[in-house]
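chain below, 497 aa
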Amino acid sequence: MDKSEESVERKKELPNRSLLLAAGAACIGGTFQYGYNISVINAPTMYVQRFINQTWIERYNTNISEDALTLLWSTIVSIFTLGGLVGASLGGTLSVKLGRKGTLLTNNAFSLTAAFLMGISQSTGLFELLIIGRFFSGINAGIGICVQPLYLGEIAPTSLRGAMGMGTSIFITGGILTGQVMGLREFLGREEYWPLLLATTCIPAIIQLIILPFFPESPRYLLIDKGDTEGCKKALKQLHGTGFSETEREDIEKEKLNSAGVQAKKPWELFSDRSVRWQLFTIIVLNVAQQLNGINAIYFYADYVFRQSGIPEDQIRYVTVGTGACECLTALTCGMLIECLGRKVLIMGGYCFMSICCILFTLTLTFQGAGPVVPYLSMACVFAFILSFGLGPGGVTNILTTELFTQSTRPAAYMIAGTVNWCSFFFIGLIFPFIVLGLQQYCFLVFVVVCSGVVTYIFFVVPETKNKTFLQIQNEFQSLNKKKSNSIDEALLTTPI
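prediction:
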């Protein structure tokens, strides 16, 4: 291979600048918002509760009861998940009707509305606006986390699809970290600034509205869904460059021929389609596990562990920001490794390490008073667990949802995956306090079972998808579906009646 060929190969391995900018524009108003709105609500907890109490006194001339205050605050926090569930159920349908890019741009209306309502809540004396605003933020996050990975997976070349798909995880963790930093007292963490802090959710929306219109719609959507050949060519040329768009166009045309006459499927139609049975079951398992793998428990116990380690009270928030930075750095690392190691190795390795961390964390919490070094071992387990989650489940799950389905089934698959994810998020938030109350530190043994079970399932069922086209992946699963169907039929035929 001469030097000119080597330089061409290097160029092929590197994403086009336009492709990177398009991905950034999609992510800043997509999953970044999800992460940001999860974390930004934590800093002003006391200030918002004080505002609710003052408003209650002005209305009813009495202090609000502790139970009522807790109920209102928990509603403000948890209504976000209900909005996310609504958004996830809308995202797939909107992505078919408005396109991937069109849906992302339209979705900003929910973010801007939420920012406005939360920003004026204190001045109007209406804490109810916080509930409505958080609900709209949830809708925005639900649509974003459904449609943005869809857009990234469809604009990326096959050789970079995993790395591009990691933008979802990178921007989620970046959003969480940004929300934590903005909540520090040095920024907007003071009492007088809390309405402004909650209203900053409009900034990513405005950035996306300014930048994303300069980039094209998904080439796959243009050619397969809309039949716009010229639009597809222009989009590929802008996103992949003039020299490397032809191969991708041929791949898209093959998929178009394969799905000729097939309309985009509805979510309920996937459940009756035996050709996608194992793909569907896989994304349900992975999305349930992403919420039930113990990451929420780790964050719950982190505060206790940091206090046991002797960290001053006023410094704990900075250490918490450090965990967010750790997760963000891990997502970036996963983005660099995913095209080398593959999806299967990363997600299985992540769950294996998480299982080990759960066992070690249980031991260190059980013997917390055994010596001065034990609390620091607990801290090490916290960071190791977060690193393991970011390297595997946190980043790869959404990529697999993109890769296991073709154009006609992908939007519906994302609606199902999103709905399962948000329902699991709500479920773990509801029952987790009772699990901790009943099992104490031994609750992590439950998560060992979840993590090890997912590893076993992935090992036996999920193929490696690195550097494979969507059609190649579909063909592998079709073989699996046929094998399973034949084995079931044989079992039925040989069973005596």
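The mean pLDDT is 87. Residues 66-97 form the longest helix (32 residues).
thats it, cya
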